[in-house]
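ARCHIVE CARD
CATEGORY: sequence design from structure
SOURCE FIELD: tokenized fold
FIELD CONTENT:
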């Protein structure tokens, strides 16, 4: 009788375990993330995925590329995604249109510009002065790459409207192809395209916009205020996983980071990925924590103002939620 009782007890315990396992599976929270582009510039995000940091927090992160700030924001506002990874300037644009449900930045991923100035010809001793009189193939008007590009030019006493021919009517996805086809003397490119062009002899990297622009919340995770309010605990878990990844990237070599994120970039050689990661790490492009501070926000507004794209100054506390990042970092 005693033996039979033990068997029943074991079965009961097993059923309880299976029940608990089933419950844990059911309560796993899905977070749909839309990234503005797919780039090595976002290495910590891919590390958080590959190392299982999101899973450790009980999250199932569904990542898709939404290709462009306008499309990313449209997807967020229409509830096609829960979280957007995009330039912080987009939250200001939405606010300026009188949004009832503001888009709020809650975790920073990159803290300077990720583009490079690529020249068609090899230049041994480059100076920004050499851009005067040239044709410059820039990025989309109103986007962070273009605004930072113009800001840096002005810092070097170059008027982008008067001192050179500025082309900025080409779609983001086609800028590199336009340059490769012969348009422009200089072009502003993201990695790994800039390094690949250099390897193929299509262009030569002569300067970094990130090194010149100073700290700025170039790319941040953001969500509608209502979503953050209703899912604060989930977003804290999300940010905690991101912070783990940011620390991992900071503490490991470019080679180790490259190997970790390589599956995300199957068409790019491991050597190129490592080169790009090393370049971004050396200029502190990857934020070391998710906290977006006020000085960086002010720099963002200054850059937008210089470009003539700032509708109006927006209070830092209105569009930046620091509570989630601070809690995630403390824990």
């Amino acid at each position: 009788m005693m033996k039979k009782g033990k068997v029943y007890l074991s079965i009961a315990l097993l059923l309880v375990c299976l029940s608990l396992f089933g419950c844990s599976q059911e309560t796993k929270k899905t977070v749909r993330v839309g990234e503005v582009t797919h780039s090595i510039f976002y290495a910590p995000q891919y590390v958080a995925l590959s190392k299982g940091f999101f899973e450790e927090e009980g999250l199932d992160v569904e990542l898709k590329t939404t290709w462009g700030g306008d499309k990313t924001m449209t997807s967020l506002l229409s509830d096609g995604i829960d979280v957007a990874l995009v330039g912080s300037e987009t939250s200001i644009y939405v606010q300026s249109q009188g949004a009832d449900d503001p888009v709020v930045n809650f975790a920073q991923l990159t803290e300077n510009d990720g583009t490079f100035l690529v020249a068609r010809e090899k230049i041994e001793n480059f100076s920004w002065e050499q851009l005067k009189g040239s044709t410059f193939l820039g990025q989309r008007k109103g986007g962070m790459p273009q605004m930072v590009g113009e800001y840096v030019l002005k810092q070097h006493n170059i008027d982008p409207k008067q001192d050179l021919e500025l082309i900025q009517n080409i779609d983001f996805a086609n800028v590199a192809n336009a340059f490769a086809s012969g348009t422009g003397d200089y072009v502003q490119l993201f990695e790994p395209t800039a390094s690949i062009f250099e390897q193929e002899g299509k262009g030569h990297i002569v300067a970094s916009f990130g090194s010149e622009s100073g700290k700025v919340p170039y790319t941040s995770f953001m969500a509608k205020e209502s979503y953050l309010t209703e899912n604060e605990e989930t977003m804290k878990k999300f940010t905690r996983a991101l912070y783990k990844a940011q620390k991992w990237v900071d503490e490991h070599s470019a080679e180790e980071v490259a190997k970790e994120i390589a599956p995300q970039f199957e068409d790019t050689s491991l050597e190129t990925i490592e080169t790009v990661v090393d370049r971004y790490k050396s200029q502190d492009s990857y934020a070391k924590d998710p906290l977006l501070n006020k000085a960086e926000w002010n720099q963002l507004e200054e850059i937008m103002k210089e470009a003539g794209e700032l509708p109006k100054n927006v209070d830092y506390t209105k569009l930046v939620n620091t509570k989630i990042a601070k809690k995630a970092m403390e824990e």
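CARD ANNOTATION: The radius of gyration is 23 Å. Strands lie at 29-35, 59-65, 83-86, 103-110, 115-119, 135-137, 165-167, 186-190, 204-208, 219-224.
SHELF: design records, drawer C
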